[in-house]
Amino acid sequence: MPTSLPSPTLTIHPTFLTQSTFSPFGTVIECPLPQSTTNFPSPPPSHPSIVSANQNTALKHLDVTQMRDPYGAAPSHIPSKAVMNMFSCFPRTLRSTVTHPKRDYFDVRILERHPYTTQTFIPLSPPSAPLAEKGETKYLVIVAPSLPATSHPPLFQKAGPPDLGNIQAFWAHRGQAVTYGAGTWHAPMAVIGDERIDFVVVQFANGVAEEDCQEVELALSTGEQGVSVLVGPGSRAGEPKM
């Protein structure tokens, strides 16, 4: 069972996902080339992190993210292995209110972290053009920093609980992958729109449940709405067309 924490009442306005805004939590992976670049550029880009490859038919972008495996510090000392899974994430159910029926909210009820591994989510291409015509489907990246460690409960003895007062949300699109830094608190992937998004997820794991993934449940007080992300009209930046 996840550890329970009292949830504040907080409405988050998501912003666009960029490396500069996301850097405290991990890495954003996206191609720097314009979408209009469909032929090998001549001359090729002069940049130390981009090199020509495959007989000048491709550009190789070096070290686009850093994979970390600090399982050597885990209490069990059981070694990890690289794991690659695929998650098919379906559109989330949103909440509206009587006072603002045209505004949609995504309620954050659980956060998790992987204390001994980075975790990279790589979205795959949309399944078909007709579905995309309904409106662009995006996904929310929801993260929070950690508070200082505490003696109780044991879950927080080495790294503290999420700082719910500084939780942040970002809009990401299918052309962006994201790597959560080891130990970064984040919500399970939340797809917003009309169609599912399939993600290839790359991380390390050793099979010890509390070392691979730690969860906290945000408990609501009576009559409170808890932590929510405004995703419909009224959001300050980047809401999908829905």
Task: Provide a compact summary of the structure.
By secondary structure, this protein is mainly beta. Helices cover 5% and strands 34% of the residues.
In words, what does this structure look like?
The protein has 242 residues and is mostly beta strands. Helices cover 5% and strands 34% of the residues. The protein is built from 3 helices and 18 strands. The protein has helices at residues 19-22, 129-132, 209-212; strands at residues 3-6, 10-12, 15-16, 26-29, 50-53, 58-61, 81-89, 105-108, 110-113, 119-123, 138-144, 168-172, 177-180, 185-186, 190-192, 197-205, 214-219, 227-230. Strand 5 (50-53) and strand 6 form a beta hairpin.
Question: Main attributes?
Answer:
mainly beta, 18 strands, five-stranded antiparallel beta sheet, single chain, about 35% strand, about 240 residues
Total of DSSP H or I helical runs spanning 4+ residues: 3
- Give me the secondary-structure category: mainly beta
For the terminal residues, how far apart are their CA atoms?
35 Å
- Give the % helix: under 10%
Q: Which word captures the global form?
A: globular
Provide the succession of SSEs: EEEHEEEEEEEHEEEEEEHEE
Instruction: Please give the number of β-strands.
Output: 18
- Unreliable stretches (pLDDT < 50, length at least 5) are 128-133, 236-242
The largest β sheet comes out as: 5 strands, mixed
Q: What is the residue-averaged pLDDT?
A: 89
Gyration radius, rounded: 20 Å
In terms of DSSP E residues, the strand content is 25-35%
